[in-house]
Amino acid sequence: MAASTHFLLIAFLALVTSQAIASDPSPLQDFCVADLHSPVKLPGLNTLGISLARIDYAPLGQNPPHTHPRATEILTVLEGTLYVGFVTSNTDNGNKLFAKVLNKGDVFVFPQGLIHFQFNPVHDKPAIAIAALSSQNLGLLLLPTQSLDQSHRSQMMSWLRPSRCKRGQLIGSRLSFGRTTTTK
Hints:
Oxalate binds at residues 63, 68, 73. By secondary structure, the protein is an alpha+beta fold. It has a single domain (49-183), classed as Jelly Rolls (Sandwich). The protein has helices at residues 2-17, 150-158; strands at residues 51-57, 62-67, 73-79, 82-87, 97-102, 107-110, 115-119, 127-133, 141-142, 182-183. The strands form two sheets. The chain has a five-stranded antiparallel β-sheet with strand order 6-3-8-1-10, with no helix packed on it. Strands 5-4-7-2-9 form a five-stranded antiparallel β-sheet, covered by helices on one side. The longest helix has 16 residues, at 2-17. The model is unreliable at 159-184 (pLDDT under 50).
């Protein structure tokens, strides 16, 4: 009897204490000295708890629906035009799409953990953006094509109606939610 009680107690403690805790690594130094000869990375950001990325979008390119479970993202458009948005996670009142067309100099914030996307609607010009994220360990979850219901797909593509497109542009049919078409 005592052995089974001890076994149950040990099993319970093992289950309770085995939960993973995910967070940014604790900075072990106050600052990081940058390697000025590195053209690829910004080592000066190391241990500051932020990430920075430049994203080049091909004409009609996209960053398909995805989420960052541990970071908020701020996107700034440097060149071109982007159609961006996110879907709320309020299931009581129905998920709502917040989307906007951004031009050079515009900024958009994607809250932590929400599904969001970016799309270059222009058929002949690339777009460039800078994404700043509030974590070094942001996480990236790409969503499968089936994850968004038809109403959200329709909302995302509704702005592509002919009155908003220049003559000769057919871009609504090119917005696919299953693959990335950004350039590197």
